[in-house]
Amino acid sequence: MTRIVIAVGKKKSAIARAVIKPGKGRVRINNIPVEIYTPEMARWKILEPLLLAGDLRNKVDIYVNVKGGGWMGQATAARMAIARGLIEWSQSEELKKIYLEYDRSMLAGDPRRPEPKKPRGRSARSKRQKSYR
Fold first, then answer.
1. Residue 2 has pLDDT above 90, yes or no
2. pLDDT per position as a tens digit, 37-68
3. 88 lies in a domain?
């Protein structure tokens, strides 16, 4: 029986699901190989946990499905899903420690959410102007 790990990462309204299987190091984001994923800034963000993992990267295939949010939110969510999945796959406290020292947001989510809209305005902070004259 092959071992499969599913991990989830979230950032704002972007949600990423990573499926990690035994393989030879292929990484695909929404069926696009990570080598040609654009924009380049997002690609480097996604590759961070893989570069820190070392030789574990070449033992697994990672398929990430990400939707919602903007391109950077999606990249951060995918990065979190990959990092969490690799830790679950390897059961390594050392890898977890490496990720936490490098960047805590790789494993711990960002709790910030949009502020609710208030009455008398179009958004959370804007108000309709009053005119007395």
1. no
2. 989 999 999 999 999 998 998 999 999 999 99
3. yes
Give the distance from CA 60 to its chain's centroid: 18
Tokens of 109: 């989510």
Domain count, the chain: 1
CA distance linking residue 122 with residue 31, whole number of Å: 38
Residue 66 is assigned to a structural domain of this protein: yes
Residue length of the chain: 133
Backbone angles phi, psi at 126, to 5 degrees: -70, 140
Q: Which two tokens stand for residue 72?
A: 């950077």
- Whether 130 is in a domain gets the answer no
Q: Which domain holds residue 46?
A: 5-106
44/42 Cα distance (integer angstroms): 5
